[in-house]
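Posting this for the archive.
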Amino acid sequence: MPEQSHPLVRFLDEQGALTSSEANESCAEYAAEVDEQLLRRCYEEMVLARSFDSSAAALQRQGELALWVPNIGQEGCQVGAALALRDQDWVVPSYRELAIARIRGVPWQDIIALFRGTSHGAWDWRATRFHQYTLVIGAQASHGVGFAWGRALDGASGHGDREHDEAVLTCFGDGATSEGAVSEAMVFAASFSTPNVFLCQNNGWAISVPSSVQASAPLAKRARGFGLAAYRVDGNDPIAVYAAVRSLMDRARKGEGPGFVEAVTFRMGAHTSSDDPTKYRDDDIVQRWARRDPILRVRRRLIALGCGQEFFSEVDDRAAEEASQLRSGIRALPDPESMDMFRNVYTEPHPLVEAEAQWMREYLAEEEAHHG
């Protein structure tokens, strides 16, 4: 992925040292919120997400999951963004936001059930404020704008109260920006000043198509053309992602308009478990990005702050314990009930769905009567 000329927000370099630049100034106030305690939380969440990711990928290879979407390399983007959210905020994800889902309280069983094929989305999105995964590329951009517009019309934002006003973070990758729905969503958001922030994790590849083929200029510039406030940040620097997302979310919740964060990162693994990235990219670029690993970067910063080995060992132990629970618990996940397919289709009861559900109940009753 070529480096494109455009101001890049970065507070933490590859060696874990703090940096400053003119591009950082407009969100430096928020970066200052990331103290050692929050940085420890950031490190822990990244390590836990990667461990979960690796375990799930192995389970897919063993036939326990129908599909898995790797997250390795993008933990800095997701953890930085998730920690930037306030409790009242909402997330509209794609299908790769594992770390954000975990931080928002989605149980691991519910995430795994989706990829095991026993659920279309088991978690309570109202309780977690984390909507269901969207598998149709780019569709969630419109969903997020519509939801944010509705919340604004309900009076949930625009009061200048950052502790109660709501905003919506909508996530997608660089590939989704080639979809018309994403452009339409940004136009609508800007026109109606919806309380939205779009987080584009530019991981370099839309499956096998490099981002340089998708766009000749940084995606943050495109967002500005639609009238959005935009940052382009080092996506492997969770402090930069935190500062940019938090700044724009607070701006959006006040009613000052939507925002866009292009987080430049790299997809270290395959697009999904059905993909073989060795067919279209060389190993040297993977190794180059491995040296920019967000986990290693934050670890170096914590060591410089005096954080001892005991903390890192505790995080590793917790990651190993959670991975063990995942491996042992996956086969205990229940199969879905036949009637589950009729639930949560529409907000209000629909006569067609009700009629089909009644037919299914009668059919199941007949089967039970005949076969016991």
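The first strand starts at residue 90 and ends at 92. The two ends are 61 Å apart (CA to CA).
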